[in-house]
Write a structure and sequence with these properties.
single chain, about 500 residues, five-stranded antiparallel sheet, five-stranded parallel sheet, about 15% strand
C-alpha cells in the first residue's frame, strides 16, 4: 500500500470453512508500534463461544500476538479441565505435550499424552504403525504457522483459552498475522466442538483490521479516535503517552509520577484542536464533557465566578475518567491587565477563581483531564496556564502539504468504511490525496472536510433529482470543490 492509498490492500482467503479478509496487514503491524491493535473487533462466532479478543502490540523490538477466547456452559470448562484434548484448543495443547514426549509419548507421559500423540498422528512406543492424524485441517493451520515462524503457546483456565506468540519486530511479516488468525479460528472450532472436518465456521466471513464504523446514531465527532487524526504525528504521539499514563495508574503510583492533567492546545481555527480532545477521551475510555462559553459567562456580578465553582465542584465528583474541554478558552478567561475599571476587575476575578479551582482539582480527582483550546494564546493570562495547571502546551499548526495528504487520505478511508457497500463505489480510482494536497495550500483539516461535504452533497442531489446513480467522486470533482471553496 502506498502512503496515501485510500483503499488499503485486501486479501481474502478460505480458512477452516470461513472466508477471511485481511485489510492492510502491513499497516496493522506498523500501527501496533503505537499501541494494541484489535484484529477481530465485532466478529460473530458460533456458540458456545461468546468472547474472542485478538490483538497485536509491539514494544522492545518484539511484536506480541495475543488471543483470549471464552465459551459458555459447563461442557467447555470440563473439557478444558481435561486439557482440552477432545475439544478446546486440543491441537495446540496436544502439540505442546507431544513436543515434551517424542517417541516415548505413551510410556513417559500417560493417557493424556497418548491422546495427544493420536491427535498428532505420532507413533507411541512399541506401536507398529502410527494412527492417521486427526483434524487434518487444523494440522494444516498449525503447520502453516510453524512455516511462517509463528510458534503459539496456549494456556487455559475455567472455560477460557489464551493463545500467545511473539515475533521479533525486525522479522515480523503479514504472514505471521495471517497465521495467528488461523490459530485463533482453530481454537474457536475446538471450543465449539467442531468435528475433524470443518463445519461450524462454514459460510461465515471475518474481516481482520477494518475499522468498525460507529452506529449511525453516534455523531462522527463523538466516535473519533487518534488513528483518524492526520498531519499531527508528534501531537498524536504525545496524546498516546497521556493515554498510557491513565491506563496504568498503579505504575504511575509506584514511581510517584504525576500524570499531565492540564493540556493547552493553541493554533489557527480548524486545525483539529477539539477533535484531538475528543480523540483523547476515546483513547482513554473516558467520558467527555465540553464546557461552552455561555455556561460560564454571566452578565450579573459574581455570576461567572459561581458558574466556575459549580463546574469544578461537579468535576470533583466524577467517578469515571473524564476529559473536560474548555473550548475557545480565551473567550472565557482572558488577561485584562491591572486596569481599575469594573470590566477588568470582573475578568481578573474570573481568572482568579479558575486558578484556585485548578490548583485543587487534580489533587482531589486524579482521573480528570482539563483540555483548553484557543486560537489566541496571547490573550490568555500566562500565570493561568503555567506548569502545574497546564503541564502540556501544544501548538496545533495548519497542516503542511504532507499533513494535508495524510488528512485527505484518512478522511476518504473513513467515508469508504462508512458508506461503500457491494454495488456502490463512493470514490473513483483516480482520486490522488497527494496531488490534491499540492493544490490546497493554506487549507486546514476543517476546510478539507468541507470540500468532501460539498462533493458528497452534490453527488447526492444529482442522484436524487436525476433518478439515476451518480458516478463515483473523481479527482476533478474534488478539484472543482476546492475551487468553489476558494470562491466562498
Amino acid at each position: 500500500m502506498t502512503e496515501y492509498e485510500v483503499r488499503p490492500d485486501e486479501e481474502t482467503v478460505p480458512l477452516l470453512g470461513a472466508r477471511v479478509t485481511v485489510v492492510d496487514a502491513a499497516g496493522l503491524l506498523a500501527a501496533a508500534q503505537a499501541g494494541p491493535v484489535e484484529l477481530l473487533a465485532g466478529a460473530d462466532f458460533p456458540a458456545p463461544v461468546r468472547e474472542v479478543r485478538c490483538t497485536v502490540r509491539a514494544g522492545e523490538g518484539v511484536h506480541r500476538f495475543e488471543a483470549y477466547l471464552r465459551a459458555d456452559g459447563p461442557g467447555a470448562a470440563v473439557t478444558l479441565l481435561a486439557l482440552g484434548l477432545a475439544g478446546p484448543a486440543g491441537l495446540l495443547l496436544a502439540q505442546r505435550l507431544a513436543a515434551r514426549g517424542g517417541d516415548g509419548l505413551a510410556a513417559g507421559v500417560g493417557r493424556v499424552a497418548a491422546e495427544a500423540g493420536r491427535r498428532l498422528g505420532l507413533r507411541p512406543a512399541g506401536a507398529a504403525l502410527a494412527e492417521p492424524p486427526r483434524d487434518q485441517a487444523g494440522q494444516d493451520v498449525l503447520r502453516q504457522a510453524a512455516a511462517a515462524g509463528l510458534h503459539p503457546e496456549v494456556s487455559h483456565d475455567d472455560g477460557a483459552v489464551t493463545v500467545r506468540a511473539a515475533v521479533p519486530s525486525a522479522e515480523v511479516t503479514p504472514a505471521h498475522l495471517h497465521a495467528m488468525v488461523g490459530v485463533v479460528l482453530q481454537a474457536v472450532r475446538e471450543l465449539a466442538g467442531d468435528s475433524p472436518e470443518p463445519t461450524v465456521l462454514r459460510g461465515r466471513s471475518y474481516t481482520v483490521g477494518r475499522r468498525v464504523a460507529p452506529p449511525a446514531a453516534v455523531p462522527r465527532s463523538a466516535a473519533v479516535t487518534l488513528d483518524q487524526v492526520g498531519g499531527l504525528t508528534d501531537v498524536v504521539a504525545r496524546f498516546r503517552e497521556v493515554a498510557v499514563s491513565f491506563r496504568h495508574p498503579q505504575v504511575m503510583a509506584r514511581w510517584g509520577a504525576r500524570r499531565p492533567q492540564g493540556i493547552l492546545l493553541y493554533g489557527p481555527p480548524g486545525t483539529g484542536k477539539t477533535m484531538l480532545a475528543r480523540a483523547l477521551a476515546n483513547e482513554i475510555g473516558a467520558d467527555f464533557v465540553e464546557i461552552r462559553t455561555p455556561e460560564i459567562l454571566d452578565k450579573y456580578l459574581g455570576g461567572s465566578e459561581r458558574n466556575i465553582k459549580r463546574i469544578f465542584r461537579e468535576a470533583r465528583r466524577y467517578r469515571q475518567p473524564t476529559v473536560m474541554l474548555f473550548d475557545e478558552f480565551d473567550s472565557i478567561i482572558s488577561y485584562a491587565g491591572a486596569g481599575g475599571d469594573a470590566a477588568s476587575q470582573a475578568v481578573n476575578a474570573v481568572a482568579g477563581i479558575f486558578k484556585q479551582e485548578m490548583n485543587t482539582l487534580f489533587e482531589e480527582n486524579p482521573d480528570v483531564i482539563v483540555v483548553a483550546t484557543t486560537n489566541f494564546p496571547q490573550r490568555v493570562d500566562a500565570s493561568l496556564i503555567r506548569s502545574g495547571r497546564f503541564d502540556l502546551k501544544i501548538a496545533i499548526p495548519a497542516p503542511d502539504e504532507t499533513g494535508r495528504a495524510e488528512i485527505i487520505a484518512k478522511m476518504i478511508r473513513e467515508l469508504i468504511d462508512r458508506h461503500e457497500r457491494p454495488g456502490f463505489r463512493m470514490f473513483a480510482a483516480d482520486v490522488d490525496p497527494a496531488a490534491l494536497a499540492a493544490a490546497t495550500p493554506g487549507l486546514t483539516g476543517a476546510d478539507l472536510r468541507e470540500v468532501l461535504r460539498r462533493v458528497q452533497l452534490a453527488k447526492a442531489m444529482r442522484e436524487a433529482t436525476e433518478g439515476a446513480p451518480a458516478a463515483p467522486i473523481s479527482q476533478d470533482d474534488l478539484r472543482d470543490a476546492v475551487a468553489g471553496l476558494s470562491r466562498g
